[in-house]
Amino acid sequence: MSEPVKMLGTRQPREPLLSVEGLKVHYGAIQALKGVGLSVGAGEVVALIGANGAGKTSTLRAVSGMLRPSGGSVTFVGKNITGVKAHLLVSRGMAHAPEGRGIFPNLTVQENLDLGAYLRRDTAGIAADQEKSFGLFPVLKERRKQLAGTLSGGEQQMLAIARALLSRPKLLLLDEPSLGLAPQVTETIFRTLREVNTTGMSILLVEQNAHLALSMAHYGYVLETGEVVMAGPGKALLDSPEVRKAYLGE
User: Which parts of the chain sit beneath pLDDT 70?
Assistant: First the structure.
């Protein structure tokens, strides 16, 4: 039997946007997720933290349709989307910026951004949103004709986020946005994510830097070996001695 999830603090009520219940994922005989449950409210930033191999990336991939779950359910904007393919979820308002960024290195920055809006037909709206992206990440405007593969790691991460935003998502899934980046670049990216969240966009964030993630999150979940073991408001998790010892190196 699994241990009950340790709940800290109280959660501010919000309109539900994403609800995940009993999510299971297998890779062959190996079970990566053993019944994960979580939710994201409208306009909420939710962080998933845990050690490498805890199941964070598998959770995001199963939610966004990149992996087919072997059990459980995923509900998004009131509809069951369990097992729905990733490309179909984009039109429903979900965007996933994966670990490793997933940009197209042989296309220009501009072409990558254009692909972010491939389902949209509102030309004026797309142009306006591209300008907003350039406002968030001015370096992308300077590099718009450059091949994406020639950008620095930080610039590629900015491009991955900007491209995801061009689909105008209700929910943005981010997997390790600070991985391998200099602290100054990480700071820029997280400042931008806070700004994006103020527009009402919800964010489900997997991030190795637990302190940074929980400082930004309205709510957080701690994953261990494919199960949620603790949940609570970001501040409550930051203040937890267990979290501080295990994930904040204190």
Answer: 1-2, 100-101, 250
